[in-house]
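Worked example 2:
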Amino acid sequence: MPIIIYKQFVKAPIEICFDLARNVDTHLMTTAKTKEKAVGGVTHGLLKEGDSVTWEATHFGIRQKLTAKVIYMQQPAEFIDIMVEGAFKSFTHTHRFVEVKDGTLMIDIFEYNSPFGPLGIIADKLFLYRYMESFIINRAKELKKLAEIKGGHKWRSLKSLS
């Protein structure tokens, strides 16, 4: 099972980082390259434990749907979502937040199983792992930019959506 771990320091309070990471509207902003849309479940605002959201996005030139469910949440330190329906055999995405001097350490842990057995393993080695790693890192960097606005226009307008 491939595991992607990405850590980054964000010069923003832990509560802002946590809320941005679980905000459906923020997710749409930070995944613009894949043209993501929330098409089912919770489609706006902050996700909480037990919530599901169905995403529609374009990956590898193919429009796909994926439903994820938040199975655990401990504010503002961690939440975990899993795929309940979609292209992967399975995935678990753990979002951790650690309060540190002058900001927050944001940690993404993404574990997944590819579909198609041995063919999925080959796809991981050839391209899928790098693609997913890039997706996780790019989204995290976009979250960092939004969090570090510190009360700027984008954060205020996002906060009003929750």
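Residues 117-147 form the longest helix (31 residues). The CA atoms of residues 96 and 117 lie 30 Å apart.
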